[in-house]
Amino acid sequence: MAEKFKIIGGETLRGEVSIGGAKNAVLKHLAATILVKGKTKIYNVPRLTDVDIMLNVLSDLGAKYIYDKEEKSVEVDATNITSITAKYELVSKMRASFIILGALMSRCKEAIVALPGGCAIGERRVDFHIKGLEALGAKIKIENGYVHAKASKLIGTDIYLDIPSVGATENLMLAAVLAEGSTRIQNAAQEPEIIDLANFLNTIGADIIGAGSSEIIINGVKAENLHSAEYTTIPDRIEAGTFMAAVVATKGKAVIRNVFPAHLTFFNDKLIKMGANIKLIEPTTIEVSCRSRLNSINFVTQPYPGFPTDLQAIAMTLLTTANGVGIITESLYENRFMQVPDLRRMGADIHQDRNHAIVKGVKNLTGATVAASDLRAGAALVIAGLIANGETTVEKLHHIDRGYEEFEQKLQKMGGRIYRYDETENQIKGVFNESRL
Fold this sequence. Notes:
This protein has 437 residues and is an alpha+beta fold. The protein folds into two domains: 3-20 and 235-436, UDP-n-acetylglucosamine1-carboxyvinyl-transferase, Chain, CATH 3.65.10.10; 23-232, UDP-n-acetylglucosamine1-carboxyvinyl-transferase, Chain (Alpha-beta prism). 30% of the residues lie in helices and 26% in strands. The chain contains 14 helices and 25 strands. The protein has a five-stranded mixed β-sheet with strand order 22-23-1-24-25. It has a four-stranded mixed β-sheet with strand order 2-15-17-16. Strand 16 (277-282) and strand 17 form a beta hairpin. Helix 5 packs parallel to helix 6 (166-176), helix 6 runs parallel beside helix 7 (192-203) and helix 10 packs parallel to helix 12 (375-387). The longest helix has 13 residues, at 49-61. Mean pLDDT is 94; it is low at 118-124 and 431-437.
């Protein structure tokens, strides 16, 4: 469907919003459920297209699931796995589904998984995944766009990652759960989602220590040690950061619930330096506000706990109307400035030089027709539309729907003038007060 967002800028966001479960955590939990020959129930599961894709991957492998919309939970029964092949038609739509490789190797000792797709933000090779699995004893060949891995058994070993790759760390953790002996991953990724995956795996009977540090140890257990369990996913720190930025950008004031502030320490610090006010109300509730024009800052994206690359595009939108000049250095992905041309269409003054973006604040952005090139760039353009003069149309919403549940509804409840328009059906979708246009 040719769905678009129509946004009338200039409204101040106020009220409150509740953050959903972390997309980048729940996808890995779902993959991990196939380790259990039984039922596993996961709470705080957002209904996103990425989640739907992962559920389809599991179903294609033979697992059964029940999604409870009201409870926001998924129960997966992976008692019977009837296939070891994750098809291109599914994996090509979402890179995170490649994590099924480690889970299948752990349970079945064989996997055929299509090379991954996802947002076109730059080169994200799977070399570290492959080399790590080979170190555990897998024989791997890549042909016709598929990775075919097989092992009579997996044996724990020491694995050093050249870079702290999140995906490789997760894939190797999953593969090592049922390996013989202990596996030590050095220079491991330290993101909160890594910790959450380790906690989930330990809840179903795995033995993992050190998650959240640069060294993770997975002590292999027997398949019969793994069991059914219930688990609640952590809040989505990127969704939280997105709504914080939206409130600050519109000079608003809002309460944000179901957030772990410690997961956003670096981002929060940058917002405060720009002129935002952030107050902790309860352990998982913050109040965010801003009354004046923001000040420009410089920042470099880095692996956690540094500035998140997933919030870079959103922070760039804040700089477009801030006082002074800010410099952004994207150190992780070479194509993560894909929002720049569309922000320029809206009047932003941005000079890009390879992995550096120099953003000179302008007085106002103006509405324009723009298109989401990837998930986070799409969210950045929505925020730009909220602060721009006039009407903004954001196209290619399928990117945004991959990672934000009920995005426009949440913004509407806070006073944002945004609605989803289905061009093919010539109708407005969702709740929107047209009289405010």
